[in-house]
Amino acid sequence: MIQAKALCAAIGANQVLRDVSLEIAPGELFAVIGANGAGKTSLLRALSGLLPLQSGAITFEGRNIARVPAHRLSRSGLVHVPQGRQIIPGLTVRDNLEIGAQNVGLSRHAIAARLDEQWERFPVLRQRQSIDAAALSGGEQQMLAIARGLMMQPRVLMLDEPSLGLAPQIVQLIMQTLRDLADQGLAVLLVEQVAMLALEVADRAMVLRNGACALSGPSAELLGSRDLVNSYLS
Ligand SMILES: Nc1ncnc2c1ncn2[C@@H]1O[C@H](COP(=O)(O)OP(=O)(O)OP(=O)(O)O)[C@@H](O)[C@H]1O
Ligand SMILES: [Mg+2]
To answer: Is residue 96 in some structural domain?
Structure first.
């Protein structure tokens, strides 16, 4: 589905990605964990066309996408839910969702069908569909950010620290939602700083440190080497 080979990228003089490779299949939940500043967001930005590569290759469904602009990628099914959610204040919950779908050019009919799916997945958003999105709680805003990503009919969904600042109960719900989406056939790339949380739901994972892959493998194996994983997280 999506494959990245030896990605290198810099922000100014700062080398933020060093030879990072990964591959995610449909139905798979892949976690990228790492400390503050490890390069997790940079990796997502590189994959979604927002951070230029110095070298390396990215293929999405067999197509080379290393130089395709971000808006074209989201139209073709590679969707990035950014760190900090970036919902649009001043617009209702429903408008935030519809705008997500309009961005990728869905018909009215398709938008209505996608909306129904989101209402079913997150009933609280249905209840609150007519209020200003800025009035939602942090957890509801994260649900909205995920639902907005799902409005774009992704085949790969990438999420940047969806647990950030949320109560444990909401975090559990978000993680379970991501697991369900993978089980329904989506390729999910989850970036998390809370490593154990991510390892518990993911199939495979990578530990990033200083922009490079320090460790990778099946999540169960990484959970079995907790001490080693933790040694890379500080
Ligand atoms: N706009 C920027 N200008 C300069 N350096 C940046 C910029 N954005 C990020 N960096 C640097 O790039 C490196 C990787 O940052 P990145 O945001 O990818 O890390 P992260 O793993 O997502 O961290 P966090 O957990 O804090 O979100 C860090 O050293 C950071 O200081
Ligand atoms: Mg980040």
So the answer is: no
